[in-house]
Amino acid sequence: MDLLKTTTKVIHADETTLILSKQVNPNRKKSYVFVYASSFYDENQIHIYEFNETRSIDPESSYLKDFDGYIECDDYAGYDRLRKSKSNIKLQRCWAHARRKYMDIIKAMPERNKKESIAFNIVYKMDKLFKIEEKAHKDKVFGQELIDLRHEQELPIINQIHDLVFNYTPKQGSAFEGAINYTKKIWNDLLPYLDEPYLELSNNLAERCVKPFVINRKVFQTSGSEAGAIYTVKLFSIIRTAY
Hints:
The structure is a single chain. The chain is about 50% helix and about 15% strand. The chain has about 240 residues and is α/β, with parallel strands linked by helices. Strands 1, 2, 3, 4, 5 and 6 form a six-stranded mixed beta sheet that branches. The chain starts with 9 loop residues before the first strand and ends with a helix. About 30% of the residues are buried.
């Protein structure tokens, strides 16, 4: 339970699928493996892999139910339900996930139209945030100094992104409308990092923790049973934490 008691009070969370050869419920095609990782700023890196028969997060039985702090995550609604039932849990959503929505739009555009588009402008400003954060990490800016830097350099950019997102009316039913609505939905949860030095812009840390499991899953493909899946994730937790 050391992961629940780190000094940063930050956990990065993500999940991936796992197929069981012998499903308890024959109508269920896939189960899930959740990954919980300690912050980059924690002295000891801890990676916990947890098997779950479904993607649903039960607030009363979740590994995170007694956690007191921030969960860095994507927009999966399970984390919202967890936060709603557990006042000790707060969320930081991932800017990288929001950025991908606009990048998908830009990739589909004719080259001549890209730089004039609102989507390009939004991505350009988001990239500015990531560059500032990257330099701050490199220069080992931390604590109150990092908070001050974020408010001075990043908050004005965030306000510009806000204006682009909330003051533009995209074509109904378009991919751009989907990207705009996605950003609006998670907007308030994109902002806590401004005042919390242990929080990061993205949840890439958890995605990197998921990757080794996904690579190995390509080899073993399925787990024979729920017991086998539980045994597998326990091994992963030990190996990846000791790695």
